[in-house]
Structure formats: C-alpha cells, structure tokens
Amino acid sequence: MLPTILDDFLDQEVVDIRGDTVGTLSCYWESANGLLFLGVRMKDQDVVRVVPDHNSRVDDRHSCVRLGFSAKMVSSAPPFDCEKEMKVSLEKASTAHFGLEPIPGHVN
C-alpha cells in the first residue's frame, strides 16, 4: 500500500480480515526501513493501536481500509499516541504481536 493514498482514508472506517468494523484510521507512518504502520482508533476503546500494513489494502468502493488481521488481534495490539514520535521498539512490538518477521536491519 502506498502511504500517500492513505491521506484520503484518514478518519475513514477500518475493517478486519472478515470485514467487521474495528475502528477508524487515525494516523500512519513509514519506518526507516520502508515498512508501513497504521494507527487504528478502536471503536470500542479510547486508544489507537499500532498495526503493520501486512496484507492490508484500501477499498475505494467502500471508502475503508481492510486489514489483514482479525479484530481480536488488532484490539490487543500495542497502543500509540499519534501526536508522538514513533519508536523502533514500538514497531518491533507490533510486528511481534502480529507474528511477523522482525524488522530487517534492526537488532533484536
């Protein structure tokens, strides 16, 4: 997914792998290694969760972002404040939470 496309989807609905609404897109950022992360404000929590864009895509037809993960996984992902600077440790915690490979070039 291209980061510039996400500008059009800020504050739009985010759905899980089954198509169930999990929240809205609050922010996004690209890591130093080019990986993209999404900040999803959960509909049933007053928190933004960090979600790697792995297998995620934008859905122009439904004006939403479709995640490659279940709502349950997203709801327990590491929290993040979109007003703060992203730390590598949080990116690593998010990729580990979702069972993805460690971030290339980062020491574990």
Describe the overall structure.
The protein is built from three helices and seven strands; from the N terminus they run αββββββαβα. It has a single domain, classed as Photosynthetic Reaction Center, subunit H, domain 2 (Photosynthetic Reaction Center, Chain H, domain 2). It is an alpha+beta fold. A hairpin with a 5-residue loop joins strand 2 and strand 3. The longest helix is centred in the last third of the chain and has 10 residues, at 88-97. 18% of the residues lie in helices and 31% in strands. Strands 5-6-1-2-3-4-7 form a seven-stranded mixed β-sheet.
Give me a quick take on this structure.
With 108 residues, the chain is α+β, with helices and mostly antiparallel strands.
Classify the beta-strand content into a percent band: 25-35%
Order of helices and strands: HEEEEEEHEH
Shape: globular
What kind of assembly state do the chains in view correspond to? single chain
CATH topology: Photosynthetic Reaction Center, Chain H, domain 2
Average pLDDT figure: 90
Largest sheet: 7 strands, mixed
CATH superfamily: Photosynthetic Reaction Center, subunit H, domain 2
Domain tally:
1
Classification by helices and strands: alpha+beta
How many helix segments?
Answer: 3
How many angstroms separate the termini?
A: 26 Å
Architecture per CATH nomenclature, i.e. the level-2 architecture:
Alpha-Beta Complex
Q: How many β-strand stretches?
A: 7
Question: In CATH's first tier, which class applies?
Answer: Alpha Beta
Radius of gyration, rounded?
13 Å
Helix content percent band: 10-25%
Give start-end ranges of low-pLDDT stretches.
none
